[in-house]
Protein: Glutathione hydrolase proenzyme
Amino acid sequence: MPRLKRRLAAVTAALALAFTGGAAGPAAADPRATEKTPTVAGTGGAVSTVDPEASAAAIEVLRKGGNAVDAAVAAAATLGVTEPYSAGIGGGGYFVYYEAATGKVHTIDGRETAPAGMQPDAFIDPATKTAENPAGTPYRFSPELVTSGVSVGVPGTPATWERALENWGTLGLREALRPAIKVADRGFVVDETFRQQTLDNRTRFAQFSSTADLFLPGGDAPAVGSVFRNHDLAETYRLLAQRGAEGGFYAGALAEEIASAVQAPPRLSADALPAGVPYLPVPVGSMTAADLAAYAVRDQAPTRVSYRGYDVYGMAPSSSGGTTVGEALNILEQFELAGMDAPAALHHYLEASALAYADRGKYVGDVPGVPTAALTDDVFGKERACLIDPLAAAPKPVAPGNVNSYDGVCPAAPAALAEDADTENISTTNLTVADRWGNVVEYTLTIEQTGGSGIVVPGRGFILNNELTDFSTVWRADDPNRIEPGKRPRSSMSPTIVLQDGEPFLALGTPGGSTIITTVLQMIVNRIDLGMDVSQALAAPRASQRNFASGTVTSEPEFIAAYGEALKGYGHKLVPAGDALTSAAEIGAATAIEFSPGDGEGGELRMIAAAEPTRRGGGSAMVVAPAPTPSP
Ligand code: GLU
Structure:
C-alpha cells in the first residue's frame, strides 16, 4: 500500500477504535476529572498524559486560546500535584517543541545537575576508606544512594517551564500554574496507583518528618477514594507565579531550604520511626544555594534521523534518547520489516536495540565531544546493521562500533566489551500536547525513581529527585557517564516528534528508565512498519533489549506469551519485567498524538490522542473538539 494510503487507512482504523466505546472522552475541564479515555480523535488541540486532571488542565488552557506550550506547562504542573512521586519541581526533564510557524523542532534540556562540590568519589562511603582500603567501597544502590542527599541533582523543571513559556508560550507562569494550584488546593481523588506507590515507598518516606507528614498522614498511605490536598505545594506554585522560577526557586528562601534539605535531610531519629520501619543510612549531599543560583537550562538542537521517509527528532545529550533511538532506526532501515512475520521483525528490533545500546554506553554522556553526528549517521547505522544475523541473536553484550572510522561496509566483528549493569529505575511521566495551530510539545519529566530521594523540602510540598543515581556508580576515567561536578547524568528520556514532509505526523514518549529508548523505538516500528494504528502501537506488549551481559530481554508477560517461543528459536532470553522496587510487570506508560491533514484547503489538522489503556492504571487522552461519531 502506498505510504499516504497506508497512513489514512491506519487513521481510519484508529478513529473507529476511538469510537467503539461510544465515548469521546471528557471534552470540557471537569472540576474533579477522574474519567480516563485512552484514545480520542478530533480537532482544535489534543493532549495525552497519564492523568485526567493533568489532561483536563491542558484542555482548559487550549480552550481559552493558549498554545501547546502553555498547555504543556499547565499539564506538567498538574502532574506535579497528582503524580508527585514521578515528577515535579524537585526534578528535571526534556522538552521537545515543534513550532508550526517555522516548521522547526526545538528542545530544552532541563536535566538535573550535579552540585559544584560533587567529587568523583561522591558515591564511595567515606566510612569505608581505611589504610588497607584507601579507595573505599561504593555505597549500595539501595538503600544508600536512592534515599539520600548525595543523589539529589539541582532541579531543572521550574527553569524548563519558565524558559518554554518565555521562548514560545503566550502565558506567563502565573496563568500557566493556575490549574495546578486549583487542583493542589481542592485536592484530587486517590486511586489504587497513588496508594500503592505510597505504600511501596513507606519505609523511605517514614524517615523524613516532612515526607511522612505529607504523604503518610496518620502513618498510613492515603486511602483509595479519599481526597488528597497539598496546600504547601499550592503555596510554592504561588511563589513561582509571583517571583518567577529564577527569583522564587533558584534564589531566596526556597533555594536555601532546598540546599539545607540536601545537606541535612529532615530525619526522624531511629526511635521516632513507626514500629517495624528500619532506620536508613541516608548519605548527605553537598548542594548549596550557589548551585541553585548557577543552574541554567540548555536550549539545544535536536537529533534528527530520517526513517522510511519520516524525519524523527529527539533529545541530544545529556539524554541518550535521541542518539540511541536514532541509531537503532538507522540500523532497522536496512531491513524490510514490513515484509517479515512479527517474530522476525521483533528479532531485528531487539538486535538493533542491543547495537545502539553498546554505542550509547561507550560514547554518550554529558561530556564534550559526544559523536552525535556519527551516531545518528545512516552510514554508521548501515555498518552496524551488518552485525545482525537475520536468523540468530548475537551473543551479548555486543561491542560498540568505531565512530571514527566507518564507511557503511560490513567489517569483521570486533571483540565484545562487557556493558555495566544498568541501575536505572522506572518511574517518571510523559505528556504530549498539540494545539489548533499545529504546534506540538513532547515532554518527559521525572524525579528519577518513584518517590525520588524520598525527601520533601519541609513545608514546600514537593519531593527532591535522586537523579544523580543515573551516573555510573563505579567511576572510570573513560566512561562518558562518570561523576563530575556540575555535570548532568546521562538520561534515557526520549521525547520524540516525527514529521512527514515537514508537518507533524506523530509525537510520542514514555517513562521507564533505560527501557524508555526501546519503548519509543518499538512504538515507532509498530506504527510505521508493522501496520498498527497509534493506539495499537501504544498498547502492544513490550520488550526491551539493552545489551546486558546476561543477554536477557526484559519483557511484559503478554509479550512472552505472544512471541516467547518464536523468539527463543532465535536465541533470545526473555525474562519477565518487574523487580523488587516495581511491583508492576509492565514497561513504560506512553502517550502519543498522531496527526493527519484536514480535508480540503485549510482543513483543520486532525489529531488522535492516545494514552495507555491499562499500564499504570490507564492514561487520559482528550481533544478540544471531538470528531463526530462515525455513523454505523
Ligand atoms: N532517570 C531516568 C532517565 O533519565 C528516568 C527515570 C524513569 O523513567 O524511570 O533516563
